[in-house]
Amino acid sequence: MPERIAADMMRGGELYRAYCIACHTAQVHWREKSQVHSWTDLRYQVSRWQRISGQNWSREEIEDVAAYLNRLFYQTPCPVPGCGGPRAGGNGERQLALPR
Prior knowledge:
Elements: H1 9-19, H2 26-30, H3 39-52, H4 59-74, E1 87-88, E2 94-95
């Protein structure tokens, strides 16, 4: 399977608004006891809750919703282009694009 070019945050936002926003207001993402501390945590939580809510999203749809949430709330380093946060390097350190 070819690697994706980039996450589709527009589709992620549409999925989130259609299936998640009824229960997950912005407050759930800002609470003190957040369960998201990394891109892996975020993907896991999106995958977990889409299953609990009876969805059957593809890996790409899960990444799109995670990218949307990452841009809005978390800004964690992540390996997926277009993920809304700095790219994670092979050693787990942040790699930020430098201005040209």
